């Protein structure tokens, strides 16, 4: 803006000086042309013996007239009278005073007057800006062309002075603007930066960080409000941490304390179960139900203990190089009896070569048991397909069923603790409602993904993706989340956050951002 304003001012000053010089030059040219015509009016034609002396005297008088007699040159040029010199010039060499070619052609064409800004010289000095004005003078002695050479040294000096002044003023203005910006930065931007750094420290867990309050202006009130907000957040976070710690301790203590009476009840139930053949049918059935519920209670306690370990951050991964095919085979063998009882068949698709990954075998097998058992439970007696694939960075296992599927809107709750899609549904496996929650935590402990696809009537597919080696960051999976036999008629079959942008296939959420689904 400073440069643009300076250029505008210089342009306006230059235009004003040029216009004033042009008007003054044309006025002096008109006066000089009238004077020359009057001086030559009384002669008797081109052969008058006084013609030469009269022209010389007129040139001398014209050169001496005006306030700038020493600054400009006057030239009278003629080409019709061979007895006279071609050019009359006072104080300068005639050959040095050369009219501009374009202006000479303009005057020769019969124009009354003209002017041109040009760089030329009338002496030995280098060329410099001139305003050359010319007009033809018709007399009885012939035609004479009158030229005025006005140097623009004063105008150039004035423009230079204006430019230098504007440059100095612009530099001073920029310094003032820099000083103002520095003050604004110190008074406004710096406290905002301090607030940003304080917020970063708070987000990093340094809950004691506060801003320094100075003065009573708006920034001081902002710092006070920020500190108050930080104090409230700290108080709430501490309360939540205490509640969470109490909850974890309660869960862990209850689980441990219940183990002793549970062991006693288990021993008593086993003794009763051993004599169940001698009981009446109703009592034998009660004995069977007692034993089943004791088993379920023991599983629930184990799951609660495992959840409490995750909540307290005490869960430890024990990775080792494992052939994942072995884990899949053990899981299928362990659940084949349940599948046969319900009427489902387990279809396993695995590569022939070993699939080695650095995982915790116990936790991965637990995930697979939960996923396959869940698929059998909700598969409506239809086949359950387990697929294993791998690439250089990841191992993926999908468990596909063709049962009731997932209803829209329930996906965010599928991994919630004790959540069930249909509370009235009779369970076949006696689950505790914590299986998928524990499976998700096991997958996260491996830095992996546990995701789900589903649609009502089309079934569901869970996908477990694990890094092949510890420290590898997953960016893709060897198997797609949406099964190929689902078709493309259900573009919103995947629940939860979605990848931005248009899609021509079922939308799949970004693996690193969400685990979604609809199964309890």
TrEMBL record:
Q: Which domain of life is it from?
A: Bacteria
Domain HAMP stretches: 186-238
Listed Gene3D superfamilies: 1.10.287.130, 6.10.340.10, Histidine kinase-like ATPase, C-terminal domain
Principal location listed in the UniProt entry? membrane
What subcellular compartments does it reside in?
Answer: Cell membrane
- Known PROSITE patterns for this protein? HAMP, HIS_KIN
What protein am I looking at?
Sensor histidine kinase MtrB
Q: Which organism is it from?
A: Cryptosporangium phraense
């Amino acid at each position: 803006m400073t440069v643009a304003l300076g250029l505008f001012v210089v342009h306006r000053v230059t235009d004003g000086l040029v216009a004033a010089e042009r008007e003054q030059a044309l006025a002096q040219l008109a006066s000089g042309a009238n004077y020359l015509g009057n001086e030559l009016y009384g002669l008797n034609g081109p052969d008058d013996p006084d013609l030469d002396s009269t022209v010389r005297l007129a040139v001398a008088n014209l050169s001496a007239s005006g306030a700038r007699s020493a600054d400009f040159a006057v030239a009278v040029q003629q080409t019709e009278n061979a007895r006279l010199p071609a050019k009359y010039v006072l104080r300068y060499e005639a050959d040095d005073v050369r009219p501009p070619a374009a202006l000479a052609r303009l005057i020769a064409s019969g124009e009354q007057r003209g002017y041109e800004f040009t760089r030329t010289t009338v002496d030995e000095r280098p060329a410099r800006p001139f305003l050359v004005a010319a007009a033809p003078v018709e007399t009885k002695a012939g035609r004479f062309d009158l030229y005025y050479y006005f140097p623009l040294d004063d105008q150039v000096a004035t423009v230079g002075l204006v430019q230098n002044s504007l440059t100095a003023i612009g530099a001073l203005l920029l310094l003032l603007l820099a000083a103002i910006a520095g003050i604004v930065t110190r008074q406004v931007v710096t406290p905002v930066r301090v607030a940003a750094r304080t917020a970063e420290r708070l987000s990093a867990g340094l809950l004691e960080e506060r801003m320094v309050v100075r003065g009573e202006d708006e920034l001081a009130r902002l710092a006070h409000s920020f500190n108050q907000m930080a104090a409230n957040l700290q108080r709430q976070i501490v309360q939540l941490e205490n509640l969470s710690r109490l909850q974890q301790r309660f869960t862990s203590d209850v689980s441990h304390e219940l183990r002793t009476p549970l062991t006693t009840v288990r021993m008593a139930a086993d003794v009763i179960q051993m004599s169940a053949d001698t009981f009446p049918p109703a009592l034998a059935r009660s004995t069977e139900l007692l034993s089943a519920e004791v088993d379920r209670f023991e599983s629930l306690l184990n799951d609660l203990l495992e959840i409490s370990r995750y909540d307290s951050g005490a869960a430890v991964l024990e990775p080792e190089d494992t052939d994942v095919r072995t884990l899949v085979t053990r899981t299928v063998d362990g659940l084949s009896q349940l599948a046969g009882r319900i009427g489902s068949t387990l279809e396993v698709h695995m590569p022939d070569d070993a699939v080695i990954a650095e995982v915790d075998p116990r936790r991965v097998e637990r995930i697979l048991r939960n996923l396959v058992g869940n698929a059998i439970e909700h598969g409506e007696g239809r086949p359950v397909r387990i697929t294993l694939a791998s690439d250089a960075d990841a191992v993926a296992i999908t468990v596909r069923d063709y049962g009731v599927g997932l209803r829209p809107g329930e996906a965010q709750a599928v991994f919630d603790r004790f959540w069930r899609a249909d509370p009235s549904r009779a369970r076949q496996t006696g689950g505790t409602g914590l299986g998928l929650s524990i499976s998700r935590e096991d997958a996260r402990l491996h830095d992996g993904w546990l995701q789900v696809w589903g649609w009502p009537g089309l079934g569901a597919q869970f996908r477990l993706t694990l890094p092949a080696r510890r420290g590898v960051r997953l960016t893709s999976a060897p198997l797609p989340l949406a099964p190929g036999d689902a078709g493309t008629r259900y573009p919103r079959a995947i629940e939860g956050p979605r990848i931005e942008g248009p899609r021509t296939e079922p939308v799949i959420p970004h693996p690193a951002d969400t685990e979604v689904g609809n199964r309890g």
